[in-house]
Structures are given as C-alpha cells and as structure tokens.
Amino acid sequence: MEIGEQLGARYVLEGSFRRKGEAIRLYLSVFEAQLDLPVWAERFDIPEAKFDEVSDATIAELVSATVATIHQYEVRRAKDKPIEDLDAWECYQL
Question: Of residues 54 and 74, which shows the higher confidence score?
Fold first, then answer.
C-alpha cells in the first residue's frame, strides 16, 4: 500500500461511509501496508439521527477492536518469523 510506504507505517486504517436507508453505514479496514493484506474489517450501522452524537465510548470500542486485532496479527507474525540467533532464542525461552 503506497500510503503506508510514504508514512513508514506497517498498518493502514481505511474507512468510508455511505447512507443506507435511515442509517449511516461505516466501513473500517486495517491493512498490512507492506503486503497490502487485509488484517481486519468491520461494518457499523449508525442511525442517521445519532451520527453526530457518536460517543467517545463507541470510538474507544472501535479503537480497542482494531488494536486487539493488530496485536493478534503481530503475535502470529512474530511466531512465524524464522529464528536467526539461537542464543537469543534460548535466553528468551528461560
């Protein structure tokens, strides 16, 4: 993902919204920027009348879900990384 390279970011959060009846449909996605792989995506429907009142709690919930997903992805990524220094790996295991 070009923007990730420009910013030096490993992950990029992408979002969009559109009207869906009397609601606003919000789409959020997180991509692993170097490989342009989707890591997480979610859709949220917010009643149009309440769109301006989206609370800090709702935003915190979105951020928590994103951070938790990135953390899980990073743990998997670390486990899949080949061991380059067996002495360091042994020290880590102790």
Answer: 74
| C-beta of residue 3 within 8 angstroms of C-beta of residue 29 | no
pTM above 0.70, yes or no: no
Is there a contact between 13 and 26 (Cβ–Cβ < 8 Å)?
A: no
The SS3 call for residue 31 is strand
CB 51 within 8 A of CB 19: no
Q: Report whether 42 contacts 69 (CB < 8 A).
A: no
Distance CA 54, CA 28 (A): 15
SS3 79: helix
